[in-house]
Specification:
This protein is of the alpha+beta class. The chain has two domains: 265 residues, Helix Hairpins (Orthogonal Bundle); 136 residues, Glucose Permease (Domain IIA), CATH 2.70.70. Helix content is 63%, strand content 17%. The strands form three sheets. Strands 1, 4, 6, 7, 8, 10, 12 and 13 form an eight-stranded antiparallel sheet that branches. A three-stranded antiparallel sheet has the order 5-11-9, with no helix packed on it. Strands 2-3 form a two-stranded antiparallel sheet. The two termini are 56 Å apart.
Length: 402
């Protein structure tokens, strides 16, 4: 009776452990599915943001082109205004000169007219006989009168000519002043347009900056989700191995107690494998023994086929330091339910090294940190699980080691 109870206890214990692993596998698959949905959602959002950024950039380019054109027009109008101002100053200078000339001619005409009136009055004051007696005097007066008359006509002609030019210049001055007012109005309108466009440009820049900020935030989220998804996949792969090991343990325990147990099914799963082509490097432990090799393993007694995509290295001393084998960037460093502390490092050529079942992680180990070869990433109490992948294919870790 005690023998049967003992056997039942072993079987129940094995079933419980198997069920626990199976539950964790289901939970991990659910998490991966959730991460895929989040990734899809964020990718869609990123696509919309990229479209918005493209549209806003086009608007900004159009605004900048409009600003350049407005500045060109403004400079052109300023140049025209400058030339018109020069022309106006020139016209006003001539206008002032003609005003002076007009005053001078007017003064001369007035003077001549006054002299002519005086002569006329002298001539009209005596009688005809007296005039005859004073013939010589009258002759001089007549000559003077003729001279004054001729000079007066000349001055009148000059006055008329001056007046014509004066009126023409006055008209030109009015035209130029009108043109200047129009040019100044155009300049003010262009300045207003330039200010308006500059404000719109600044607003557009702020919009693009905000959209870029959102895009970066979503890219960070996407990178984190992808990293988490990859980690979950790695964990799922580990859990599947653990499940196989639990199945094997269950069969062994059952068989060791004399039960007739049939094989549950193939525990073998094909894994993509590639060869390591880089330089040989250091081992993660300075002193160790290999307790599990990479590749196919067939239990000689129970004929269970398992593929080991990692190696297990048993440290020769407890609390041995674990070293990074190649220069790279830490992409994951955390504690997991099944694998203890896990550190994943990304190297060049898309190579990843995975260190599992660590008892401790070094306090300096942080995600996204670049670390050199030989950097201590943590400690291991007993055995270290060491795995290497490249482009989602597995590499025999022992191929890398010197």
């Amino acid at each position: 009776m005690k023998f049967i109870v003992s056997i039942l206890g072993i079987l129940l214990s094995s079933v419980y452990l198997y069920a626990s692993v199976q539950q964790k596998i289901s939970h991990t698959k659910s998490q991966i599915s959730s991460k895929k949905y989040q990734e899809k959602k964020i990718s869609k959002k990123l696509g919309a943001l990229a479209k918005d950024i493209t549209i806003e950039n086009r608007k900004l380019l159009k605004l900048r082109e409009d600003i350049r054109e407005t500045i060109k027009k403004l400079e052109k109008q300023k140049h025209k205004t400058k030339n018109k101002n020069k022309e106006l100053k020139k016209v006003e200078k001539l206008y002032k000169a003609l005003e002076q000339r007009e005053r001078y001619v007017n003064k001369k005409i007035t003077n001549i007219l006054s002299k002519e009136i005086a002569l006329t009055m002298i001539n009209d004051s005596g009688d005809e006989q007296e005039n005859l007696r004073s013939f010589d005097y009258d002759s001089d007066d007549i000559i003077m009168k003729e001279i004054l008359s001729t000079y007066q006509n000349i001055l009148k002609e000059k006055f008329a000519s001056t007046k014509t030019r004066y009126l023409k210049l006055q008209k030109n001055r009015k035209i130029i002043k009108s043109q200047l007012r129009k040019l100044q109005y155009s300049i003010n309108k262009l300045k207003q347009e330039k200010t308006k466009l500059s404000k719109l440009s600044n607003l557009q820049n702020a919009t693009i900056k905000n959209l870029n900020k959102k895009q970066k935030a979503y890219l960070r989220k996407l990178a984190r989700i992808r990293k988490e998804k990859q980690t979950l996949k790695t964990m799922l792969n580990r859990l599947n191995i653990t499940k196989k090991q639990k199945e094997q343990t269950k069969i062994r325990q059952s068989a060791s107690n004399g039960l007739n147990v049939r094989q549950i099914g193939s525990s073998y799963q094909k894994t993509a494998v590639t060869s390591y082509k880089g330089m040989k490097t250091i081992a993660p432990l300075k002193s160790y023994k290999i307790t599990q090799k990479f590749g196919n393993f067939v239990d000689p007694i129970y004929k269970i086929k398992i593929f080991n995509d990692s190696v297990i290295l048993k440290a020769n001393t407890s609390g041995a330091k674990v070293r990074n084998v190649l220069d790279g960037k830490i992409v994951y460093a955390n504690k997991t339910p099944m694998l203890g502390y896990v550190v994943i490092i990304e190297h060049k050529n898309k190579i990843h090294t995975i260190y599992a079942h660590l008892s401790k992680i070094a306090p300096t180990i942080k995600e996204n940190k670049h670390i050199p070869q030989g950097y201590v990433i943590g400690k291991v109490a007993d055995e270290l699980t060491f795995e290497v992948t490249q482009n989602e294919k597995h590499i025999n870790p022992l191929q890398m080691l010197r």
